Amino acid sequence: MQHTTYVIGVDIGTQSTKAVLVSAQGEIVAQCAQGYQVETPKPLWAQQWPDVWLDAVEYCIKGVLAQADIAVAAIKSICVSSLYGGSGIPVDAQGEALYPSLIWMDRRAQDEVRWVRDHVDLERLFDITGNGVDSYYGYTKMLWLREKEPAVWARTQQFLPPNSYVNARLTGEVAVDHSSAGNIGGVYDVKARGWSDEALQMLSIPRRMMPDRLVESSGVVGPLLPAWAERLGLPAGIPVVAGGVDAAVATLAAGAAQPGNHVAMIGTSMCWGTVRPSVDARHGLISMPHVFNGAQDLYVFGGAITAGASVTWFRETFCQAEIATGKALGVDPHSLLEKDAAPLPPGSDGLLFLPYLMGERSPVWDAQASGAFVGLGLHHGRANLYRAVLEGVSYALRHNIEAGVKGIAQLDERLVVVGGASHSDMWMQIIADVTGRPVFTLADDVEASLGAAMLAAFGAGLIDADAVRRGWVRPVLRTTPQAAAHAAYNDLFAQYVELYPALKPTMHRLRQPPQGDTPTT
């Protein structure tokens, strides 16, 4: 009789941590999640103390074990992936956190971005790192700590990404996976797959602050310490696999394991990522070694800050009638909106929407960009505006895909879409028509925790590389583009791309306080 073995995959997200207990064949046995809040003490700030994450990891691992009726000895490895931790956690010589992690959505490092642009050879930085200059990147956040918190900087021994910090606690070993290292930008040589002494010198960041040991995302950081094994209820000594940045890990779970594969994750924000062998930072996307076969392949991605968030904003601001009716009838208010919006033609009767409601990431990279409806007329109603919002996010997706295609020989024809947006048939048809690609979706929501479990199984030798490439889930065809609609959207997309440069000066002026205002005392 063959005995089933199991692994645990954990993903530390921005607002919650989730664990899954999975068999080595990919069957999910148990799931557990714990939520928490991001600290936002000032405008543009977003940070988190790492013990919040460590506590959530412990809670979720114990949670899946409590649900499962299996022998603990059958669990053979664990892997923790995590949100992009920006600066990472500055730790002292004893590994204690000195300051919260300035996470991906933190935008406080504007002064440091200007300093980099004024004092660093940007073309050389682009060539070394494959990444650009923005307050999104961890290296600009590190510079903020250097300039604004010199006492913290003076005591900082190393910066640890979230999953690296947790792994260090679980194993007593410090290691950073290549995906997390590359995502810091600025300090990582994407061709040499290691820290760049040249870039660190240009930025005046001491080399000692970058941990010496870099590993593949499927590499074993070390064995689980006995004290933590007892605390978690796991076997002592099982391998703790490194993990990586959750966007890449989730993309792997959705089937992106080889060059040309690409996946769009559309939830509150939108993240489109592809696997490719090389990158040019001038395309405006973000790059890092992929979490699978990372010595050869890169994960290159971009995204919109407010994707599903734009839809939620529109619903909550303008659609009280549909919300009330939906509540009375026990139906989703989106279905009522879609009933009226679906028959409308591409372009919502002459309407375009820019989904830049919190500035924008790639390929625009403008924290002062703002949202806009353009083309409004008296003939437009809620249905037109709702459809325009879905179309606007779809244009943003195509904008990133077109940036990501530059300089590579191939991109799979099919587009895999995961996340909350995939529940909408209308939105999937719009995406197919806007991109001109057949859209594939998954029967179940696939998240980074499942990708972490796959890395745990691969890293522990329970599955081979071919099994990772085949994947644990199978995307299925959802819809195909309609020729006439795609032709119409080609013209509309060209107008969409022209709008941002035309409106940029006005967007920036509107972000400034009115002239003549005198602060009251």
TrEMBL record:
PANTHER family: SUGAR KINASE, XYLULOSE KINASE
Keyword Transcription set for record: no
Species classification: Bacteria, Pseudomonadati, Pseudomonadota, Betaproteobacteria, Burkholderiales
GO molecular function, one term: D-xylulokinase activity
Domain Carbohydrate kinase FGGY C-terminal residues, every copy: 264-459
Keywords tagged on the record: Kinase, Transferase
Domain Carbohydrate kinase FGGY N-terminal span(s) in chain numbering: 6-252
Record-linked Pfam families: FGGY_C, FGGY_N
Keyword Transmembrane helix: no
PROSITE patterns assigned: FGGY_KINASES_2
Family, similarity comment: Belongs to the FGGY kinase family.
Enzyme superclass (EC): transferase
Enzyme Commission (EC) number: 2.7.1.17
Listed name of the protein: Xylulokinase
Source species: Rhodoferax ferrireducens
